[in-house]
């Protein structure tokens, strides 16, 4: 069904922003990828970006069709650049041997995603200077084409990635793939699968919902909140944050600093809290090569 999308030239109607040379053509042979915490990190990040692509495209489809429109500010979290996936892919490239070849469909998806992000940035900038109607006239065709392309190449990239690591891929990730395929296909055809009845964008739940895989830490730590320090317990860690137990009373959104037994200091905000348990979201996600998540 998507063979028509296998050539990048098919959709290239406008100048695109290229990825940096070091990240443009990763060298990694799908048949040699073994499932590990590193590949799981890449898979989960690809799923997260693909879901955000479906959400952004759904919102863009509302901008130029009949009915209520999404707000540009509502679209920004889904349509703006996020380099985490590049870091994950770059780390896998660094672990690959020199004679390995690339993941071309994943690379093409990232290039198409960059085109879509660039088109959205240009549109949102001119909304403030020209107004929505005039900015839409100028950017409608480019914006819709760029995000349609991103959806189509996301489908191909997920197919490629699943084929590369499927021997060890847990069932929940395979179920994610089916859900994402449906959402991306619907958005690419001009529908709005990620817009609810009240015209609000939302990220549909996936069978495997965690953006990053978690790894056990199981050690005491020192937690500092608003100048007060207490002893707590780190349950697990992911690239996005920490799971904490034996915590003092907290409020969501509070800034928090956690010092591990090794002396490493991690900072972030309280993402959730329930009795003496809490989740901390890092100010900046850890790299996939970080010793905390690499073991």
Encode the helix/strand succession as letters.
HHHHHHHEEEEEEH
Separation of the first and last Cα atoms: 41 Å
Walk across the major sheet and give the strand order. 1-2-3-6-5-4
Regions with little confidence, pLDDT below 50 for 5+ residues = 1-26
How many helices?
8
Q: Quick one: biggest sheet?
A: 6 strands, antiparallel, barrel
Give a short overview:
This protein is α+β, with helices and mostly antiparallel strands and 295 residues long.
Which tags fit this structure?
single chain; 16% strand; 295 residues; alpha+beta; 6-stranded antiparallel β-barrel; disordered N terminus; globular
Explain the overall architecture.
This protein is an alpha+beta fold and 295 residues long. The chain starts with 20 loop residues before the first helix and ends with a helix. Helix 2 runs antiparallel to helix 3, helix 2 runs antiparallel to helix 4 and helix 2 (37-63) runs antiparallel to helix 6. A six-stranded antiparallel beta barrel has the order 1-2-3-6-5-4. It contains eight helices and six strands, in the order H-H-H-H-H-H-H-E-E-E-E-E-E-H. Strand 4 (255-260) and strand 5 form a beta hairpin. The chain has helices spanning 21-24, 37-63, 72-79, 84-95, 104-130, 132-165, 171-188, 291-294; strands at 215-225, 228-237, 241-245, 255-260, 265-274, 277-282. It is globular and about 60 Å long.
């Amino acid at each position: 069904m998507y063979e028509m999308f296998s050539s990048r030239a098919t959709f290239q109607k406008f100048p695109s922003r290229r990825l940096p040379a070091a990240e443009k053509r990763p060298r990694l042979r799908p048949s040699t990828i073994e499932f590990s915490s590193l590949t799981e990190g890449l898979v989960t990040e690809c799923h997260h970006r693909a879901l955000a692509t479906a959400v952004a495209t759904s919102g863009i489809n509302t901008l130029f069709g009949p009915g209520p429109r999404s707000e540009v500010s509502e679209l920004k979290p889904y349509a703006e650049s996020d380099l985490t996936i590049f870091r994950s892919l770059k780390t896998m490239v660094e672990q690959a041997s020199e004679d390995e070849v690339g993941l071309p469909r994943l690379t093409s998806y990232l290039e198409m995603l960059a085109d879509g992000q660039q088109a959205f940035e240009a549109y949102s900038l001119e909304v403030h200077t020209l107004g929505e109607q005039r900015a839409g006239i100028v950017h409608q065709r480019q914006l819709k084409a760029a995000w349609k392309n991103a959806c189509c190449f996301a489908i191909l990239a997920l197919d490629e990635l699943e084929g590369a690591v499927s021997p060890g891929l847990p069932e929940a990730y395979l179920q994610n793939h089916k859900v994402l395929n449906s959402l991306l296909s619907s958005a690419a055809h001009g529908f709005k699968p990620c817009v609810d009845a009240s015209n609000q964008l939302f990220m549909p739940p996936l069978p495997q919902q965690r953006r990053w895989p978690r790894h056990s830490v199981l050690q005491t730590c020192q937690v500092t909140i608003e100048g007060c320090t207490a002893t707590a317990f780190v349950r697990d860690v992911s690239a996005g944050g920490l799971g904490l137990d034996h915590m003092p009373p907290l409020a969501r959104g509070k800034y928090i600093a956690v010092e591990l037994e090794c002396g490493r200091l991690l900072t972030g905000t309280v993402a959730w809290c329930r009795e003496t348990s809490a989740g901390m979201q890092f100010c900046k996600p850890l790299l996939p090569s970080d010793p905390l998540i690499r073991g």
